[in-house]
Amino acid sequence: MMQLFNLMIEVMLPLALLVGAGAVWPLIFRDAEVDVLRTQLNRLVLYVFYPCILFAVVSNTPITADLLSVPLLVGIGTLASGALLYVLLYMSPLGRGLTDPTRAVLMLGGMFGNTFNIGAPVLMFFFGRDAVRYAVFNDMLMTMPFIWSLGVWIATRLGSHEKPVSYPSLWRILLSLPPLWAFALGFTLQSLGLTYKPLVAAANMIGQATIPVTLFVLGMTIPWRNLTPRPEILTAAAVKLLFAPFVVACASRLFFTPLGEAQYASALEATTPAMMTALLLADRFRLDGAAAALLIGWSTILFWFSLPLMLTLGLIR
């Protein structure tokens, strides 16, 4: 009980305050152009803050089999969630009456979690500051490759039905992302034993802004005035928050005995709410952006209740 109380105060409270600050900002500063501000802050995170924290973590982290089990297990949960959502949204009464752009974006949102910006603070609470490495390697070795391959396939083939050739090359997009190059540079320096501690410390200091800024933007993204509890939205949120960590926990017990820190970290990563990239994919591939925003909002709110439940059930510890 004391651990749960400390979790609420040390982690969930600051997360809620940052998201809340983003929610009330347009109400206090009415001259703020929300869409412009959100876009610029997202760019700042993508091009400056996030690459710095990636470089700092990766250049200081030896790659082990235990570490690699995290993207493996979370990837299993991601694929299982996608399969279940496909059945629910495309082959059951739940999806009846929904358009394909809505089905596809809910499928994407229910598959991919906010494993760094929300997952990292929770990981550090349970396992210490070095546990941020689990979120970093999961993002770079599972989430990013899956989103820009399987995720784009879902968006174009199941959602918009537009031919992929109408968009820029996915490889060109992937190779132009600064986080990928930061990860590669950090990995190279670590592998060659050339890690320069002062440079790592400098990058880490800059990268500390990643989570606060992203959560602030998340608060501006959630459609607070239109949080209609639609069945398909809540179902997708339940798959992301409850089904995915259950699958990861089962896979951990199937493949790893005894369970270690990395396996519990994997289940924790799977508990995270829908990531904001679902909205980016919706905008880029003409999917249902309103449904994406609703899913991000509801899953983020319900995460405050599902995480304690997962802790009570012993899926994370």
Word description of this protein:
- Helices cover 75% and strands 0% of the residues.
- It is built from 14 helices and no strands.
- Helix 11 packs antiparallel against helix 12.
- The chain is globular, with a radius of gyration of 19 Å.
- The relative contact order is 0.19.
- The mean pLDDT is 92.
Shape: globular
Q: What is the name of the CATH class?
A: Mainly Alpha
By DSSP (H or I, 4+ residues per run), the number of helices equals 14
Let me know the number of strands.
0
Number of domains: 1
The CATH topology, please?
Answer: Na+/H+ antiporter like fold
Q: Regions with pLDDT < 50 over 5+ consecutive residues?
A: none
Termini Cα gap: 12 Å
SSE-based structural type: mainly alpha
How large a portion of the residues is in β-strands, by DSSP E? Answer: under 5%
Largest sheet: none
Mean pLDDT: 92
Helix-strand blueprint:
Layout: H1 2-28, H2 34-58, H3 65-90, H4 100-111, H5 119-127, H6 132-160, H7 170-175, H8 178-191, H9 197-207, H10 210-221, H11 231-255, H12 261-270, H13 277-284, H14 289-313
Helix pairs in contact: 1-10, 2-8, 2-9, 2-10, 3-4, 3-6, 3-11, 3-12, 4-6, 4-11, 4-13, 4-14, 5-6, 5-12, 11-12, 11-14, 13-14
Summarize the structure.
The chain has helices spanning 2-28, 34-58, 65-90, 100-111, 119-127, 132-160, 170-175, 178-191, 197-207, 210-221, 231-255, 261-270, 277-284, 289-313. The protein is an all-alpha fold and 317 residues long. The chain has a single domain, classed as Na+/H+ antiporter like fold (Up-down Bundle).
